[in-house]
Amino acid sequence: xxxxxxxxxxxxxxxxxxxxxxxxxxxxxxxxxxxxxxxxxxxxxxxxxxxxxxxxxxxxxxxxxxxxxxxxxxxxxxxxxxxxxxxxxxxxxxxxxxxxxxxxxxxxxxxxxxxxxxxxxxxxxxxxxxxxxxxxxxxxxxxxxxxxxxxxxxxxxxxxxxxxxxxxxxxxxxxxxxxxxxxxxxxxxxxxxxxxxxxxxxxxxxxxxxxxxxxxxxxxxxxxxxxxxxxxxxxxxxxxxxxxxxxxxxxxxxxxxxxxxxxxxxxxxxxxxxxxxxxxxxxxxxxxxxxxxxxxxxxxxxxxxxxxxxxxxxxxxxxxxxxxxxxxxxxxxxxxxxxxxxxxxxxxxxxxxxxxxxxxxxxxxxxxxxxxxxxxxxxxxxxxxxxxxxxxxxxxxxxxxxxxxxxxxxxxxxxxxxxxxxxxxxxxxxxxxxxxxxxxxxxxxxxxxxxxxxxxxxxxxxxxxxxxxxxxxxxxxxxxxxxxxxxxxxxxxxxxxxxxxxxxxxxxxxxxxxxxxxxxxxxxxxxxxxxxxxxxxxxxxxxxxxxxxxxxxxxxxxxxxxxxxxxxxxxxxxxxxxxxxxxxxxxxxxxxxxxxxxxxxxxxxxxxxxxxxxxxxxxxxxxxxxxxxxxxxxxxxxxxxxxxxxxxxxxxxxxxxxxxxxxxxxxxxxxxxxxxxxxxxxxxxxxxxxxxxxxxxxxxxxxxxxxxxxxxxxxxxxxxxxxxxxxxxxxxxxxxxxxxxxxxxxxxxxxxxxxxxxxxxxxxxxxxxxxxxxxxxxxxxxxxxxxxxxxxxxxxxxxxxxxxxxxxxxxxxxxxxxxxxxxxxxxxx
Length: 829
What we know:
By secondary structure, the chain is mainly alpha-helical. It has helices at residues 27-31, 76-79, 91-101, 111-148, 152-157, 175-182, 184-203, 254-276, 286-312, 326-348, 363-388, 406-409, 418-446, 463-504, 506-509, 516-529, 535-559, 573-606, 608-621, 637-655, 666-677, 680-683, 695-702, 704-707, 709-719, 780-792; strands at 14-19, 36-41, 46-50, 68-73, 658-664, 686-691, 722-725. The chain has a domain at 14-74 and 636-798: Rossmann fold (3-Layer(aba) Sandwich).
């Protein structure tokens, strides 16, 4: 379409599709009308209109002054169910999944490095599943069944352990049988994670997006992982490459999630199997010993298969991948569960005279796992730096920055190391939760003694977990330093911004002297909003500190000789005393945090505001598909983006009208992703209006391969009509920094003043509030920009319809229940 502004045809219909942001919104609030009707969709996500606008397409003369407003509500995708508050416990899985999408853009055609980056992230995610299951095994098998039930004083202090007590001499008193019974807890945990992942997979990933752009299946063979955006060649010879978020299969992760779910479920079962086989067969001989060796060999083989499944294939996005490896999805978890059952039967065989002494051999396992995570994160950082390196001479520079974007590219967080830093943060969360929970349970079982210090009947958890629990207060203390620096810097910035605020409102005030209190409030809001840009520094500090403290924990455990009961032996007396105190404090802090999670989750069942607060966390963290960890909370965009795409395509094709998709906050990210999915013929009829948008400020910096400068400039060239509104007091939204080019104006409008009036004026006789991130529609610039977008779109010719086929705007015949006039009651659903 020509960039020249066309003259709109009065006969063309116009529609404004509103998409709300984080925290959710009701259709009544979005449409500013208490009487709304559902046009299409279900109780989870739907499109609404005002009751009087239901048949607006049949009466276009009534809407010549402005577009028909329509609201897409998707908040129930993330915060509709109170039980989802308990997903806070899956936070490490969600964080490591984000690391997959934080890959820096490849400068040059480097599909091998891109593929290696994805493999490393998936391996880190696999270690988190093993770590969580191993922590459950440590609590149930080692601390409870092996140590506490094997000590008379501990078993007597906890009556619920009586049937396992060695003093009572019951059938379950033998160590192997106690372990077999305790294995039910981690097995149930893995089964629960599988069930939740399968249920959400059926509701999200397994639902085929109705894009209508399916491509023929490729020739048999392995499907390569998606190469770097902007650098990959056209997948079907000569065809123009699509932007990453515009590929047909981007929002359809059915195959990869099913594959990863099978591998992670099998890894969990195999971890429980390894814990069962760790001790019972120590004194077996003959056929029993051979059976134990056979089980351990099978365990090793299946472990190799799991790692191979995780490494072999990533996502396929250039088409809708409808295949499902049912044999793999079924037999891998099934074989692992069968091996677990055989290991439980082997462990439960009678071994008269066997006793449980010391601890299960978990020190070497947790130490090796910690070292593996650190090595994978370091390797991930090396790959990220290699991706950022300029290509050698003679190689295509398809990932090189374009004109006008060199200064923007430097805004990528941590110089491209955002993904490795976030992966390290996920490992730190997993380690802190594992070590702290194990230490807290040991404290509870041991009573007045101090686990890990050899003062009571219990020896305590592995030495490494005791050290990991001791670093929790240290980590929080180190976080206080950058927090204090940021507080001081914000106060200084607020002081400097007072002069800027007075200059911005000088024309309005005229000769009137500025109000120092009003000026200070506006300046403080602007200074606080700038704190968002300091988040990369905090993440970098936390990740680097976590890496160093993790290395210190391994070194401390090694220095103590990994001797159970002597966690801090070998250290300097002052260090040992300090470590003991921080260990106890860290144990209580983890226990308090766990209770806080549970309490918050229970509150979400009854309190809508608490549910909405928790939903904000998922709105930001679960936008991306589950590409690394299948047990992470599901991706709501795999439902929302196809919904918006299909609504825009069907409406414009049927009516030939003009459409403005208007997205606020996270809704602007969904709107941009939906526009990328539109076919080229439809994009010419759609304009994009974003406000309070984190497209560049958050997504462009943290996910540069998908929302970097080149991607946003490509979106501008694609839609041709795009305006972005932002305020200096907005902590989330900001400019998208897309310059004017090829006759198209710059995307960013001049920064909006907030509040719209400094003091009392004839137009605003009462004091105006500081709105920050909310209520952009209240600014007069919003309506002006929306009108300007509609004026740039050429109205099309609607499809001719037979009068006998009169239908409402959703395309349903008059007899359909949804086609009833708005003044008639709707039939029960």
